[in-house]
Design goal:
Helix content is 4%, strand content 44%. By secondary structure, it is mainly beta. It folds into seven domains: 2-67, no CATH class; 73-182, Immunoglobulins (Immunoglobulin-like); 192-221, no CATH class; 233-262, no CATH class; 306-340, no CATH class; 386-513, Immunoglobulin-like, CATH 2.60.40; 528-570, no CATH class. It is elongated. Strands 35, 37, 39, 40, 42, 43 and 45 form a seven-stranded mixed β-sheet that branches. It has a five-stranded mixed β-sheet with strand order 12-13-9-8-15, with no helix packed on it. It has three helices and 45 strands.
Length: 578
């Protein structure tokens, strides 16, 4: 039997699912009346009317539900949400009441025309229409009504009931009842962790009421972030042929960072020589992994068996050799020996006094090899001995000084070959020149100083200046006497008749000083002030003087002769001061 009105139809045998008729289904009508169209034709049936019954079954579709005597669908109360107990007294909250309206499977449900009445402890506190609609999990359309309410302290009963409107298709026989117990919240002193944060997810905390589940000051707790251990965690051990891996793990979760490869490596033992190298052939050495037995071989370069060639000490008559090296197997020299220069003679000096028939002299004999030479000849006893006298001078470091050599008691000579010997730690010889009398008609060689040789066609027998030497006092020269002397071998001073002429050498010196000669008062100048200061000193007055400069004439004494010498020097007379 089918009922239809307009484009809508009802089929007891199959029903309508919103898209087509005649699908299989079952209609159960319990305890009531189903009124259909009087025409009784399936194609002209009106919408069915249910009274005082419950409609159910798979064929009921949108008509499933409870109907009253007037054929109105009964709305069922669902819930009253929003918990007033979570709020403080006097706070305003929104009460939300929900009702199941009807099934909805693609069919438009008529909107309820009534309103919801809210009561507090049996007294009406307000009404609100059903507005918002959603589809619940049970398939019913759910309508909501909302009412703002100021929370009151104490225990209360809140009800919400649907009141049908004019022409409403709905009625209600149910209400929502909510028991409320509102109290003054007593808040805790500290935050309670509601959701603990982890490395990547935020958490939350709030202040809780000590009497109920209410909470306030909800605060986000930031995610902790990963905290990685400083220690490495080995994920995979390396083997001889396959690499392993390691990383730093988070101490709270399994996250890891700094994933690092552990290189594969053999556990080799020490190298063992298998084939020894020789002087001209390479050898081999092998080492083996203690884990897998793998072996590797390397070349050991050829090598000599080194022994030392002993050092040969130098003497005063022969050179020496440094230590060398050679191969004891093949004899090849690996480190050449170098020549060590001869060491100086260790001369011991003996003074030979003069006699009536011979000059005196100093005899210098080497205590090692016996080599000897003579110098510093002295006069025959009782005779006017021929002399070459070397001048004494005074100078400071860095100065240039000339020294004259003169002959005395000259027996006459025309040729000489001499060596100028001097203190090389303080002086450097930079020039030599024969006097005018000696240089006239004389062949002379200055090219190999300190050696000097000259010859002329006639004897010179006068006592005169023979030679002037020029010295540089070294900048690093220390204070003291720098000796100057002449050396010659027997026969190297002779006359025109080719007879030996022997001279006694009177040594000279350059005294190296660190003061200005004649600067008695030490002011860096030589003038009448110094003459006055020297006069006071000789007169035993208490004055400060440069003691080294007091002996102006260099005779080893300080007296009026020094006053006279200094006066002449200041007066620009040709005198020398010391």
């Amino acid at each position: 039997m089918t009922a239809k009105a307009g484009s809508q139809a009802f089929d007891i045998g199959g029903g309508y699912d919103g898209t087509k008729y005649g699908t299989a289904g079952e209609l159960n009508v319990t305890g009531g009346i189903l009124n259909l169209s009087s025409s009784g034709r399936g194609t002209n049936a009106t919408v069915p009317v249910f009274t005082n019954c419950t409609v159910s079954g798979s064929g009921a579709r949108q008509y499933e539900g409870i109907y009253d005597a007037n054929g109105k669908f009964t709305i069922s109360a669902a819930a009253l949400t929003t918990n007033p107990e979570a709020y403080e007294c006097s706070e305003t909250v929104t009460l939300v009441a929900s009702f199941d309206v009807s099934r909805k499977n693609g069919i438009t449900t008529p909107a309820p025309r009534g309103s919801v009445s809210f009561e507090l402890d049996g007294e009406k506190i307000g009404t609100a229409p059903l507005t918002k609609t959603t589809v619940g999990a049970n398939g019913y359309s759910i309508a909501y009504a909302e009412l703002e309410w100021t929370v009151l302290e104490g225990e209360h009963t809140i009800t919400a009931e649907y009141i049908p409107g004019v022409g409403d298709s709905y009625t209600s026989n149910d209400r929502v009842i909510y028991e409320v117990s509102v109290h003054e919240h007593i808040w805790g002193d500290d935050f309670t962790i509601d959701v603990a944060p982890d490395c990547i997810t935020e958490g939350s905390k709030s202040i809780h009421c000590t009497l109920c589940d209410a909470k306030k000051d909800e605060t986000v707790i930031p995610a902790l972030g990963h905290e990685y251990s400083a220690e490495w965690t080995i994920e995979k051990e390396a083997t001889c042929t396959e690499p392993g891996s390691k990383s730093h793990h988070c101490i709270r979760c399994n996250e890891k960072t700094d994933i690092t490869e552990i290189p594969a490596a053999h556990s080799f033992g020490l190298w063992e020589e298998k084939t020894p190298p020789t002087c001209d052939t390479n050898g081999t050495s092998t080492r083996t992994c203690s884990v897998c037995g793998y072996s590797e071989t390397k070349t050991v370069p050829m090598r000599h068996t080194v022994v030392e060639i002993p050092e040969v000490k130098a003497t005063c008559t022969s050179t020496g050799l440094t230590a060398g090296e050679k191969c004891s197997v093949c004899g090849k020299t690996l480190k050449e020996q170098e020549v060590i220069p001869m060491i100086p003679h260790n001369y011991v000096t003996t003074i030979i006094p003069p006699t009536e028939n011979s000059q005196g002299y100093s005899l210098h004999t080497c205590s090692v090899c016996g080599d000897n030479y003579k110098d510093h000849y002295t006069d025959y006893v009782g005779e006017a001995v021929p002399q070459i006298i070397i001048e004494n001078k005074t100078a400071a470091a860095g100065e240039t000084v000339t020294v004259n050599l003169s002959v005395k008691n000259n027996p006459g000579f025309n040729a000489a070959s001499i060596k100028i010997d001097y203190d090389t730690t303080r002086l450097r010889l930079i020039g030599a020149e024969l006097s005018e009398e000696f240089s006239n008609g004389t062949n002379v060689s200055y090219d190999n100083l300190p050696y000097l040789t000259f010859v002329r066609g006639s004897n010179i027998d006068s006592d005169t200046n023979m030679l002037t030497l020029t010295f540089e006092v070294l900048g690093a020269a220390v204070d003291g006497d720098a000796y100057i002397t002449l050396l010659y071998e027997a026969g190297n001073i002779s006359n025109i008749d080719e007879e030996d002429v022997n001279f006694k050498i009177i040594d000279g010196k350059i005294t190296v000083i660190d003061y200005l000669p004649g600067d008695i008062n030490g002011d860096g100048n030589v003038n009448t002030k110094d003459l006055t200061r020297l006069l006071k000193y000789i007169n035993h007055e208490d004055v400060d003087c440069t003691e080294q400069a007091l002996d102006v004439n260099g005779d080893g004494k300080v007296n009026t002769k020094d006053l006279t010498r200094l006066l002449k020097y200041i007066n620009h007379e040709d005198v020398e001061i010391f």
